[in-house]
Design goal:
Two copies of one chain form a homodimer. Chain A contains 14 helices and two strands, in the order ααααββαααααααααα. Chain A has one domain: Farnesyl Diphosphate Synthase (Orthogonal Bundle), CATH 1.10.600.10. Chain A is globular. In chain A, 70% of the residues lie in helices and 1% in strands. The mean pLDDT of chain A is 93. With 308 residues, chain A is mostly helical. Chains A and B meet through α2, α6, α7, α8 and α9 of A and α2, α6, α7, α8 and α9 of B.
């Protein structure tokens, strides 16, 4: 049954994860040719795990504009391919050097570094291939718009730029002398690029697919903006307070790296209340949509109460 | 003056390189924000070097269908961004581990590994961003088709798959027992994926931009197929006979890695004559276009006589 029939967030998220995973499985390459090792690595790192929040945002925003399930699932798959590629590359020894991801060995531990680099590269290409195909939307202008927006969100002015900032932040030691306000500004910008851009794409993809009027797209972008920030603050909180077993990855990484985070700057208490405020603010942007946006409103609550 | 006014290949190639480089420079990010290091690495590795053969193929095929210079130059830039990204990632220590590229330190030597991985990732995203923008072509169906074809050519069923095969070939030792015919089949397939797919995209991009009739697009694909193979055979020859100073990179890499190449299987003499035959065959596919295809015909000759 389609996502629009769900009234509660958690079953809706589970449905979105399962349906998107099935679509991803169909879209991912498989075969037994010589290069199949890279297909396996792509499947290993993109299937069988993750909350699929980004996929949920695509599907939930698509229900607001009566977009077909197939269109929404293909776009949800594309964004999850980009997300998976970014995790593979971020986990590499030259980057964050993480051995575990989603409770299993990270891609370069399971395969090797070269295969991990290639699997990430191919997942990025696959995302754009999927968006550009006619099955994603009958109107090629919509497909071109999706490609443009995802490329912007994923590239140097989005996710990759944010990851660069993040790596540089680890190697800089001048944070202690920054005024707190400056640090908050810098870290907010980092987050907006590193994770916010993809979350914004996820939340506005339904509006692009549904050719929504500009004010509705802007409302979804505002929701995504506040929600993305809340999401990152909670990520920082979980890095301090979370359970490595539940998270499926190591904690205390930021503190060990001496990295400024929302928690190191604001403290646990203020960080927690700031995340809560942002989640409420995010939900408030959805007023124009009324009841059909209930799932997205609940998602904002989930983002700040999640434990992994 | 536009490419169509050139009669001789070498000045035409120089023009294509210069005009594409100017376009790439405009399209690449610049700025002085915190993440500018990745902008610099993108510029370092994509500007100021390379023959720009792929760009030439786009521009030359576009002149056959009276495509605007702006459209062709943007597509040429996109393909050169993908080519540059692939070289950055191929040069990484975990892959081919090359310290030099186009006569200067490779990206990870000039910057660092993390920055090189990110610069490659961002260049790939930039290629699709450029293709999807309205300035590339007024018809969104053409833009979506370009994105789809480039994504296929660059991904797991194209360039990335070929690089995977290439890496696995280095670590396998069973080549000596293969029959020569099998080896030639395997190595031809590897080449078709690793370099052939992008060359095919370059040669057929003009037909996509010009909405050419199917038989003309097929003729260009056939040209690209034979020319791509000739190109790779000459690459193998240059790895044995070439001058490292002229090439701007180390030679004898394949022999040192114990890798099967067209030269190791066919011998110098037969490899050289095979490349020549393929170049003639490539040019023959261009008969339907008559005189306007002269530059592409000359390009086939250049590919087999080039010294770098």
């Amino acid at each position: 049954m389609p996502l629009s029939t769900y009234r509660q967030f958690e079953p809706a998220l589970a449905y979105a994860a399962e349906a998107t995973e099935r679509t991803m499985d169909r879209l991912l390459p498989r075969g037994d040719t010589g290069e199949a090792r890279v297909f396996e690595a792509m499947r290993y790192s993109s299937l069988g795990g993750g909350k699929r929040l980004r996929a949920f945002f695509v599907l939930a925003s698509a229900t607001l504009f009566k977009v077909s399930a197939m269109s929404a699932l293909r776009v949800a798959s594309a964004i999850e391919f980009v997300h998976a590629y970014s995790l593979i590359h971020d986990d590499l020894p030259a980057m964050d050097d993480d051995d575990m991801r989603r409770g299993k060995p990270s891609c370069h531990k399971q395969f090797d570094e070269a295969t991990a680099i290639l699997a990430g590269d191919a997942l990025q290409a696959l995302a754009f291939e999927v968006l550009a195909q006619e099955a994603t939307h009958g109107d090629p202008a919509v497909r071109a718009a999706l490609v443009f927006e995802l490329a912007r969100a994923a590239g140097a002015h989005g996710m990759v730029g944010g990851q660069m900032l993040d790596l540089l932040a680890e190697t800089r030691s001048d944070q202690s002398v920054d005024a707190i306000d400056q640090s908050i500004g810098a870290i907010t910008r980092l987050q907006r690029l590193k994770t916010g851009a993809l979350i914004s794409f996820s939340c506005t993809a339904g509006a692009i697919l549904g050719k929504a009027a500009e004010p509705l797209r802007v409302a979804l972008a505002a929701y995504a903006h506040d929600l993305g920030l809340a999401f990152q603050i909670v990520d920082d909180l979980l890095d301090v307070e979370g359970d490595p077993a539940e998270l499926g990855k190591a904690t205390q990484k930021d503190a060990d790296a001496g990295k400024a985070t929302f928690v190191s700057i604001l403290g646990l208490e203020r960080a927690r209340s700031q995340a809560g405020l942002l989640a409420q603010q995010a939900a408030a942007h959805l007023e124009p949509f009324g009841a059909p946006a209930d799932l997205l409103k609940q998602a904002a609550g989930f983002v700040v109460t999640r434990r992994s």
